[in-house]
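As a warm-up, study this chain.
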Amino acid sequence: AFVSIIDGDGYFGDIAPDGGIGDNSGDVFVVSADASCPVGHEVTLDLGLAAEGGYSTTINFDIIVGDRVVIFADDFSTNQGWTGIGGAAEWTIGVATGGSGSDTYGGPDPSTDHSPSDDNQVLGNDLTPDNGGDYNPNIDATCWVTSPIIDCMFIFRPSMVTIG
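Now compare it with the structure written out below.
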């Protein structure tokens, strides 16, 4: 097992019968992860609670071992291998210009990106300023933009988070 419970007993003190909060800081639970445990390994723990008067219940909760690791991030300062750029759909990597759009379909483009870099680059559709920013309404097929290949072979339960 990657995870062991070293001290599975704790004391929360007295909690009023009509509600309250307990604190086990004086008698904490101790759980240890083996050095071979992969980052992101998920473990379900069962916490058994008991009180006077025969009350008892069990609460199950999951913990994830280790810090989350970013395996791919892109602020679009450069093209890291995206495919589908250009063509009829006008996908491009460029400066966020805040194009307002010029018709009833689509909305305005952002004027700033959401990355910490100063280049203000985004991946978007028709990044022209002023009344630009709309996709071409006469596109006859779906036009995808595809990220570069991201190797997740040794990543336990990868997930994707988008910002913006």
